[in-house]
Amino acid sequence: MKPSASSEIVARALSLAIHERRIAPGTKLGEDELAEIYGVSRTIVRTALQSLSHIQLVDIRRNRGAFVAQPSPTEAHEVFEARELLEPRTARSAAAHATEDDVARLHKHIEQEHEAIRAGDHGRALHLSGLFHIEISRIADQATIAGFIETLIARSSLIIALYWRRESALCESHAHHALISAIAEHDGQAAEELMHSHLVDLHTALDLRAQTETPLSLKEALSQ
Questions:
Q1: What is the longest distance spanned by two Cα atoms in the chain?
Q2: Domain 73-204 carries which CATH code?
Q3: What are residue 22's phi and psi, to 5 degrees?
Q4: Dihedral sign from CA coordinates of 69, 211, 152, 195
Q5: Looking at residues 163-177, what average pLDDT do you find?
Q6: Helix or strand (DSSP H, E) at 127
Q7: Whether the Cβ atoms of residue 163 and residue 208 lie closer than 8 Å to each other
Q8: What are the backbone angles phi and psi of residue 60, rounded to the nearest 5°?
């Protein structure tokens, strides 16, 4: 097995464990312990952790090591409040600009998302859900706002992954289907209202209370 392939496998396994909340936010990810768990070198583990830090699932702190990222409840609320302000208007604009090809791409996104959910790959499903929202901002043809939205979605995807309390924190199929229908029909008001209610529902699906359960050791969590 090539080292690069090994690091990708380790990164994927850790990402899945984080998304499934088997590893709690703030957990230290020791290189020696992970190397022993996965039977690989520390170099491979370090590469995997670096790749996860690039997508903000892991925080690497100088002289302290790597930790599962832990957005604060305040940040989580602020991120979703910002999305609730920006994305409904963007959905209205998307409804005004959408072509048949745009609608087809949106359908493809949710088909792939549903496939991932059926396969139990919540990490991929969450990633695809974020891409769906980014695609709507692209269709709206508002480049500056789209940049803000893309940044917010990247952070909120991590927040959802860490703090969901029910599977519907992954975007519900009916919510995305309804949005596509409104956009395809060029119904801006319906698209705006649907996006707002959808984001409020995502926001309320999060459990931002302090973690009270006793955390598992890395070995226990990753052997599940």
A1: 55
A2: 1.20.120.530
A3: -75, -25
A4: positive
A5: 67
A6: helix 122-139
A7: yes
A8: -105, 115
**How high is the mean pLDDT of the chain?**
85
pTM for this entry: 0.71
For residue 133 the two structure tokens come to 């929202």
DSSP 3-state assignment of 58? strand
Q: Give the closest residue to 149 by CA, choosing from 90, 74, 78.
A: 90
Helix axes 173-184, 122-139, angle to 10 degrees: 20
Buried b (16+ CB within 10 A) or exposed e, 71-105: beeeebeebbebbbebbbbbbbbbbeebeeebbeb
Whose structure tokens read 């709507």?
136
Q: CATH number of the domain at 3-69, please?
A: 1.10.10.10
**Residues near 100 by beta carbon (within 8 Å), at least 6 away in sequence:** none
Angle between helices 3-19 and 143-163 (to 10 degrees): 80
Domain positions in the chain are 3-69, 73-204
